[in-house]
Design a protein that fits this description.
CATH architecture: Alpha-Beta Complex
Strand order of the largest sheet: 1-2
Distance between the termini: 32 Å
Oligomer: single chain
CATH superfamily: Ferredoxin thioredoxin reductase catalytic beta subunit
Largest sheet: 2 strands, antiparallel
CATH class: Alpha Beta
CATH topology: Ferredoxin Thioredoxin Reductase
Shape: globular
């Protein structure tokens, strides 16, 4: 049995995570589709959903901090209302009508490859 994921599989996963955590998803459907595409590519490349807005090394142990939702998601939401890539947003941020925008990278530089 293949472990390949489709964008529909990814959307189901992301939607389930958001619902369980009480988060909303990025409001721009085209941007959201791009994030689903990136997550799907990463799953099919590495075997795990690594953040679509960061470069994964392909070494599972090294990339654990950027498995979606990444270790930085909640701190970013607390400070900015959304995660680094803007996939997951808080209900409070969603009520502002704002579109997630650039926020500083929290991932330590030594994690970059």
């Amino acid at each position: 049995m293949s472990n390949t994921k489709t964008e529909a599989d990814t959307e189901k996963f992301v939607t389930m995570v958001a619902k369980k955590q009480g988060w909303k998803l990025h409001p721009d459907k085209d941007f959201l589709k791009m994030l689903f595409e990136g997550l799907t590519v990463n799953w099919n490349r590495y075997g795990y959903y690594s953040c679509p807005c960061r470069d994964a090394s392909g070494v599972k142990e090294k990339d654990k901090d950027i498995f979606c939702p990444c270790d930085y998601c909640v701190p970013d939401q607390k400070e900015f209302g959304h995660c680094y890539c803007g996939l997951y947003i808080t209900h409070q941020y969603a009520t502002t009508g704002k579109i997630p925008s650039y926020i500083p990278e929290r991932r330590p530089e030594e994690k970059f490859d």
